[in-house]
Amino acid sequence: MIDIQKLDIVNWPHPALTTKAEPIEAITESIADIAEQMIRLCRSYNGLGLAANQVGLPIQMFVGPAYREDVGIPKGELFVFINPEIVSRSPEIESMDEGCLSFPGVRGVVNRSRSIVMEATNLQGVKIKCSAGFLTARVWQHEIDHLNGININESMLKKQRKKNRMKIAALERAVMPEAQRLEQEEIQRIMKDPMRGKE
Predict the structure, then answer these.
(1) What is the pLDDT at residue 64?
(2) Which of 43, 49, 121, 171 is most buried per CB count within 10 Å?
């Protein structure tokens, strides 16, 4: 049985990071517990956001910043977004330096839409529509990339990929121990039930 309290951030090249996340069809107690642990991890690592893929679970959920006018919570708090989908993007593009908790030591410039509108479901099962600009919009786009199996080593500018080549290669050389790989496979098998609400 999965020990949610032991979930931790996985680093590149963990297979969950390149796996397209599955939609969450029912918000179970397990899903809520995973979300709570993700918030704890995001804060403890001083992150701006965290996708479920980054804790080895390819399910459509991320935690990130939100504004009061969007979803009724104080500015600066982390909010849980389930099955998020970007429904519109501004034509204005911004270039900004980004990092990623799953790529320690790697930073690169990424082009992203300046503002977006996103639809998602909250932990109470309520569908929400929220908008964001600038840094918050960038965080949401970064996390949704994760849910689609897209990582910063792909989204950063080509020149930035070359600059980070050695750092990324070092992460790839740190091969996952066999015991950890088997544990992650077991986690993914167990997670099939909570994803479908079959507890």
Answers:
(1) 95
(2) 49
